[in-house]
TrEMBL record:
InterPro entries: Aminoglycoside_PTrfase, Kinase-like_dom_sf, Methylthioribose_kinase. This is S-methyl-5-thioribose kinase. One of its GO terms (biological process) is methionine biosynthetic process. It comes from Cytobacillus dafuensis. Keywords: ATP-binding, Kinase, Nucleotide-binding, Transferase. GO terms for molecular function: ATP binding; S-methyl-5-thioribose kinase activity. Residues 202-269 form the Aminoglycoside phosphotransferase domain. Homodimer. NCBIfam families: MTRK. The keyword Nucleotide-binding applies.
Length: 412
């Protein structure tokens, strides 16, 4: 029998079963436990432990000292502590929108949490062109509650600074600083560009000095603007969903950063789903219907966020100067501006950089994939360069449609 109380080691499926029996007060003594490692992300090991008799189940997520995607990324297992604590905080701020955490183990660097097997990963569901009409309502509430309620607008400043200290996350931030803000904007050896798209990238991204300047400004804002406690990696692969429920998970990149970072990641990944649908749904009527659904979802996420943000600000702002006339509109404007900028970075880095998204890589026709990538890159570049002009959901849709029209004309 292994000792889980002395020092860390990377668990196997058999270890996770033993761990559940000896270290978790969850299952009955006569439980017949089975385990499968189900992690498909870039960093961690995820074990699903099930009692075959009662069907009761939990998830054990363990953080290792290196990333699964590459041994180049040496990581502090403290990210598991950060994830556990932020999930518990988000559970209070936005109840119903994150899984419940049962236990955090600092020795084995793992946390045990609610199993969400009755949900499905949102990215996979969108690739199958499923619809979730409540998503924009759910995610906008989650974003407002977790971002505004952890800011200086609402929190006591000393309490907020204590959270900034607690959630300093240098190793994971460095990954974002490199993969999101730096490497995609020059011919970095670690980039992975689809051959048919490479010439477009060279001409429109790597040679554009104006774009590089703006990304430099935005990288330093990302590193220095401790505005809100952000999830830090809020894409559709970090959301479990079903028709009446949305659950955000995997916040190990969490730290105090620009509030627009989380919103922008959501928007960009909905655009990836949009690009996938555009080039994989063959029936014209079905394609138009699904693109309309995604377009409306993108618009609603922005507009509902704005509406709820202003309402919650009025109800819960405690900072005296935050109540000055016009300040909340100014503050919100900077958040939406940053949302556009981050969406732009995410759209570009997932096409050019090391970590791709299945929405795009699963497009089997090479010509269609190149067209999808060019649209995403064009939208992303426009978001970054024109971020000051982004005010409403309609502005985001205008950029998407303009990019489609531009690429269509060039293809003719």
């Amino acid at each position: 029998m292994k000792d889980f109380t002395k020092e860390y080691f990377t668990m196997t499926e058999e270890d996770a079963i033993e761990y559940a029996k000896t270290n978790l007060d969850i299952f009955q003594k006569d439980a017949q436990l089975e385990c499968k490692e189900i992690g498909d992300g870039n960093l961690n090991y995820v074990f699903k432990v099930v009692d075959s008799k009662s069907k009761q189940s939990v998830i054990i997520k363990q953080a290792g000292p290196v990333a699964r995607i590459s041994d180049e990324f040496k990581l502090s297992p403290d990210r598991n502590r950060i994830e556990s604590e932020i999930l518990q905080l988000q559970f209070k701020l936005a109840p119903g929108y994150v899984p419940e955490v049962y236990k955090y183990d600092p020795i084995m660097n793992c946390c045990t949490m609610e199993d969400l097997s009755d949900h499905e990963m949102m990215r996979a569901a969108l690739i199958e062109h499923k619809k979730f009409p409540l998503f924009s309502e759910h995610i906008s509430t989650f974003l407002v509650n977790t971002l505004l309620l952890t800011s200086d607008v609402v929190m006591g400043h000393k309490e907020k600074k204590a959270l900034v200290k607690s959630f300093i996350n240098p190793e994971l931030c460095e990954i974002s600083e490199d993969l999101v803000y730096t490497e995609p904007f020059y011919d970095c050896p670690r980039n992975d560009v689809f051959p048919g798209t490479r010439e477009f990238v060279q001409e429109n991204i790597w040679k554009d000095e104006k774009l590089q300047l703006e990304t430099a400004k935005l990288k330093f804002e990302f590193m220095t603007n401790a505005q809100s406690l952000i999830h830090g990696d809020l894409h559709t692969g970090s959301i479990f969903i079903k028709e009446d429920s949305t659950k955000v998970f995997d916040p190990e990149f969490a730290f105090y950063g620009p509030a627009g970072y989380d919103i922008g990641n959501v928007i960009a990944n909905l655009i990836f789903a949009y690009a996938n649908a555009k080039f994989t749904i063959e029936d014209e009527i079905k394609r138009k219907d699904y693109l309309d659904y995604l377009g409306n979802t993108i618009k609603d996420v922005i507009d509902l966020f704005i509406e709820k943000f202003l309402r919650v600000w009025d109800d819960q702002a405690t900072e005296h100067v935050a109540k000055y006339k016009g300040f909340k509109e100014h503050y919100l404007g900077t958040v939406i501006r940053d949302t556009a900028a981050v969406a732009g970075h995410e759209l570009i880095r997932r096409i050019i950089g090391l970590a791709h998204v299945k929405d795009i890589t699963s497009i089997s026709n090479p010509e269609s994939r190149v067209r999808a990538e060019k649209i995403c890159l064009t939208i992303g570049k426009t978001f970054i360069l024109n971020r000051e002009n982004m005010k409403t959901g309609a502005d985001f849709i205008d950029v998407i449609q303009s990019a489609e029209t531009k690429l269509l004309k060039e293809a003719e």
